[in-house]
Amino acid sequence: MKRVINFTKLRFIMFAVSAVIILAGIGGTIGQGGLNLGIDFQSGLSQRVQIAPVAMEVSYLGDEEVRFNILNGLVSIDVFTENGKTESWDYPLADYATAADLMKAMMEVPSLTVNLVDAGVPAEKLLSLAYLVDLSEGTAIVNFTNAGASSYIVIDEIRAVLSSIGDPQIQVVGDDDAQEFLIRLQDDGTNNFSKTAADKMLSLLESEYGSGTVIVKQSDYVGPRFSADLGQSVIVLVGLALALILLYIWFRFELAFAVSAIIALAHDVAILIGFIGLTRMEVSTAIVAAILTIIGYSLNDTIVVFDRIRENRGLMRDADIKTVINTSITQSLSRTLITSVTTLLAVTAIYVFASGQIKDFALAMIVGVVVGTYSSIFIASPVLLGWINSRRKNKLERDNIKYGTPAAAKKSIDVDSVEGKSEVGSLKAVEIPSAERKLKKKKKKN
Questions:
Q1: Closest CA to 21 of 239, 262, 278
Q2: What angle do CA 227, 232, 234 make, to 5 degrees?
Q3: Residue 219 is inside which H or E element, if any?
Q4: Which of 108, 113, 250, 335 could covalently link to 258 via disulfide, CB atoms 3.0 to 4.6 Å apart?
């Protein structure tokens, strides 16, 4: 038989470790001003901007409709003539050494004009455009990646530039050389806040870094009512999920199992929220999805262990409850670890190769999987053990009062070794026969 690991022996140490981690997370989050709420939960404007120098400006002087684009290292120009024909020109950036060389090639397009701002920029450093530009209606500004680390723009600089319009929250998006930033401004209640704030932000940044250097890649606005409703919905959703889990496990097992599982889930959520607060991770709908996913993952692990405990309580009738729980955890340990490791491999790959909210989701999942595995072994089952021991102790005390069990006999009873049915709701009362009952039994035998 496989050697049984005494996990429950460490239960008080693990309870203390968990308490310290949770308190540290709460304290650190409060010390940093609370959770870093995303635009979904905090009314205001959120813009993702890229600040990059201008390499060239492309315009068209003819009467035809012209589309200009740079995507995946390819410059494409499409001219739509009046007779319905389309003429196209493609210029792979890899074929040209500098922006000046690219400009010379592009001059073959009739009526196209190119104003070089920085002729020596390597062509491969030119940035893709966020969308097609209609040269019939405006000029296409082509930016390039700032390769000089010494001239990188940092968050404090942008915060100083935008200080006149409030206290913006700023985060770096992607690699440093991309010079992309997520800027959030809280709604101050002014009329038409989203347009006014967006125009002011663009004006301040371009006045500091130059006209055309600010590329707005994404712009979102959330009103106060929507953000408040969404926050309340999340609280209700998580609370409802926990309540339904409690009812399900109560129906499937017993109340002791249900309460133990809910305590373990609350433990996992508390640690995960503390981690999110300490790392200043943006609380978005993706993070809420990660929390709900971890609740389901952790619950699955706990249910597997609890199911084995229920099965072993019927098979190991002569064993005390502590032995049953340790045996059950040991038997399901390999399954738990294999599931956790394979899940971690998947979410770690997402974390390494993804970006933005998906990367935050993957990081929250990594922490959640580790914590969920830990709680299934060291939190849920030990809480169940404490509940059962407490129930048995209370039952012994009631029996002592009801049947007058001597105090000396009461002290000699070990709660963990009390004999009884394996189900919590059908524990046998432990009675110590009095001398009179023993005498009656002896007479009957004679």
A1: 278
A2: 95
A3: strand 214-222
A4: 250
Q: What is the pLDDT of residues 195-209, one digit of tens each?
A: 888 888 888 888 888
- Domains of the chain, earliest start first: 13-40+226-394 (1.20.1640.10), 44-50+149-222 (3.30.70.3400), 53-143 (no CATH)
d(CA 311, CA 319): 13
Look at residues 124, 64, 116 and name the one whose alpha carbon lies nearest to residue 91: 124
Element (H, E) at 389: helix 381-403
The tokens 């059962």 sit on which residue?
388
Residue 380 has what DSSP assignment? Answer: I
CA distance 322 to 426: 17
3-state secondary structure of 58: strand
H or E stretch covering 226: helix 224-252
- Residue ranges in 32-147 assigned as alpha helix (H): 99-106
Q: Which segments of 7-148 are extended strands (E)?
A: 44-51, 54-60, 65-71, 74-80, 86-92, 112-116, 133-134, 140-143
What distance in Å separates the CA atoms of residue 62 and residue 77, rounded to the nearest whole number? 14
Q: Read off the pLDDT of each residue in 404-418 and give the average, rounded to a whole number.
A: 47
Judge contact between 189 and 236, C-beta under 8 A: no
Distance CA 315, CA 308 (A): 10
Helix (H) or strand (E) holding 180, with range, is strand 180-186
Edge-to-edge, what's the strand order for the sheet holding 86-92? 86-92, 74-80, 65-71, 133-134
Question: Which of 138, 140, 147, 139 minimizes the C-alpha distance to 120?
Answer: 147
Return the HEC string of 259-295.
HHHHHHHHHHHHHHHHHHHHCCCCECHHHHHHHHHHH
Q: Looking at the whole model, is its pTM more than 0.70? A: no
317: CB partners within 8 A, 6+ apart = 421, 422
Q: State yes or no: pLDDT of 236 exceeds 60.
A: yes
